[in-house]
């Protein structure tokens, strides 16, 4: 209680301020009641007794002041103003103290302008704004995508341009060589030869650097489990063979992220050799999708699998229409094996000795197919039924006695997977996409190892054929052989030798000749190729004509296939096509759009035998008219003669 | 005139008699110029019918040739018929127009017709 009385008696700063304010305002208010104003109000009294008025004024002022002060005091006491104001003072003091104690600065008031506050409360407005922003975002996103696409296209165009430049350089080199061979007696010729020689010297360096034997480029990435010398030397002979064929080989580990297949959306390698069967994924982000993209982009891949094959590579193979056996299974054959350990253990009979090469002339030469058997230790696969069935070709298949063995359960794989047995079990397959990119799927990465290259087949007592097999398979996969190309196409009307070749239009039933010149790339050069089943088609929705072309001419680098034929009696826009797809050869699809026109009205025969009766009757009527006219004119009536 | 006023036989014995009478009447009473016209008309009819039969049996191809040949026959028939009507002395309706004029018109029509036919034929 004492404290409260203390507080009530002691005026705090706010109370003092209040008292001062009251005093000041009271003085001002009372001060307005001056004598002059009073005199104006009571002029008569002011004239009669100004002294009296003055006294009255003083009394009124004093009374007013006293009354207001009393009233104020009452209010203060009634409402406990002194205590409350003191309390307020204390609170503020406390707050200030705590602020300084905790080191918190004066409160920061966020400066939210009224507009924002209103907007925050109006959800609808906000939502509308959000939608608008989203729309703007979508617009920009699509624009961005379009720009990205155009960038991609331009890159591709640049790539082809680069190819063309390299081609031109090669041509230049040939010209230069021709120039060198020329007679050098004349001074002018001398000068030209020197110039050409310089050009050749300039370009040849470039060509040697940029031109491998492969038609698809020379940048090769070989992925191994690791880049230890031991691992690399394990595949040393194969890698050296690649290098010897002019490839720029980059070797990297599956666990390394340094060698990227795609950088800035640009293909960095032309060929990919995956000898990491066990890798589930690649550190460089190479996954099945990227691999498929790589093939779509024209890159070639050689995949070496093994019994621990899995992950991205397995998925990639599946995308190509090839299903590898379950992880952990191995291919066994008790009749064709090379013992590696104790021969009684089935799992030890997985080193297959096989020469069951498929008839794929353009992939494997006779030398390989009739040479020694190859060693194979790994996993089998099968070709899935589906649209890709015609794009995958078995290269090496199992014997009737070959089957798949589950090493985990130590049992033969159950009949539900019976496809993975016998000759349906594929050991090596070759895939060629529609853009002629090639993928070789080998069930055994160890086929490429030095030990397999150097091995001897005990039963036959001869060297294993692995070296030559792998050499030719990689040659095929990397476009060093089995590449077919159209050099030229010519078609013309037979009856009119003066007409230009490849006219855009013929007339129905024209006799024409179609010629196509094909070259086959093998052993580093373009050669002629003997084919008996190249067919020409004249198509308007359906083929109206399909005719087998015969080889009529051979040049040093190509073969000319030709056929004479009569165009159909149907007019319209036709496509002259040669669509040639054969196992192991790159597909050829050449088309020309040609119009076949009907006869013009003046190209028909004017008179035809069928209408002869009509011509005859017309003529007879004309003659009859003339005859009748003559007879009628000279006619005399016999009756008149009688009358005379 | 007496011959033209010849009466039908009083006792018509049948159709053969009637035809015989008609024939005799035609040969004896029709003027020779009209007979000539009749011969010409008969020829156009024969030619027209033959063409039509050929068209039905074989083909109307080429149609333009058929049109020319058959049209020529039909038109010739029509012109000849008109000429016959106009030069027939018994036909008083055209008495004020001379036979020479009729013949001239007949010739002009034919010339035009055969130009058209020649154009259609090939």
TrEMBL record, chain A:
InterPro entries referenced in this protein's UniProt entry, alphabetically: Class_I_gatase-like, DDOST_48_kDa_subunit, OST48_MD, OST48_N, PMF1/Nnf1
Record-annotated OST48 middle domain positions: 501-635
Record-annotated membrane-spanning stretches: 612-634
UniProt keywords, alphabetically: Cell cycle, Cell division, Centromere, Chromosome, Endoplasmic reticulum, Kinetochore, Membrane, Mitosis, Nucleus, Transferase, Transmembrane, Transmembrane helix
Topology of this chain in the membrane: Single-pass type I membrane protein
Subcellular location: Chromosome, Centromere, Kinetochore; Endoplasmic reticulum membrane; Membrane; Nucleus
Any one cellular-component term (Gene Ontology): nucleus
Function: Subunit of the oligosaccharyl transferase (OST) complex that catalyzes the initial transfer of a defined glycan (Glc(3)Man(9)GlcNAc(2) in eukaryotes) from the lipid carrier dolichol-pyrophosphate to an asparagine residue within an Asn-X-Ser/Thr consensus motif in nascent polypeptide chains, the first step in protein N-glycosylation. N-glycosylation occurs cotranslationally and the complex associates with the Sec61 complex at the channel-forming translocon complex that mediates protein translocation across the endoplasmic reticulum (ER).
Quaternary data: Component of the oligosaccharyltransferase (OST) complex.
Family of the protein in this entry: Belongs to the DDOST 48 kDa subunit family.
UniProt-recorded name of the protein: Dolichyl-diphosphooligosaccharide--protein glycosyltransferase subunit WBP1
Organism, scientific name: Dimargaris verticillata
Gene name tied to this protein: WBP1
UniProtKB/TrEMBL annotation, chain B:
InterPro entries to which the protein is assigned, alphabetical: DAD/Ost2 (IPR003038)
Record carries keyword Transmembrane: yes
Keyword terms of this UniProt record: Endoplasmic reticulum, Membrane, Transmembrane, Transmembrane helix
GO biological process: protein N-linked glycosylation
Pathway: Protein modification; protein glycosylation
Keyword Transmembrane helix among record annotations: yes
Membrane topology: Multi-pass membrane protein
Transmembrane segments: 39-59, 65-83, 103-121
Subcellular localization: Endoplasmic reticulum membrane
GO cellular component, one term: oligosaccharyltransferase complex
Pfam families named among the record's database cross-references: DAD
Family membership noted in the UniProt record: Belongs to the DAD/OST2 family.
Job description of the protein: Subunit of the oligosaccharyl transferase (OST) complex that catalyzes the initial transfer of a defined glycan (Glc(3)Man(9)GlcNAc(2) in eukaryotes) from the lipid carrier dolichol-pyrophosphate to an asparagine residue within an Asn-X-Ser/Thr consensus motif in nascent polypeptide chains, the first step in protein N-glycosylation. N-glycosylation occurs cotranslationally and the complex associates with the Sec61 complex at the channel-forming translocon complex that mediates protein translocation across the endoplasmic reticulum (ER). All subunits are required for a maximal enzyme activity.
Subunit structure: Component of the oligosaccharyltransferase (OST) complex.
Name of the protein described by the UniProt record: Dolichyl-diphosphooligosaccharide--protein glycosyltransferase subunit OST2
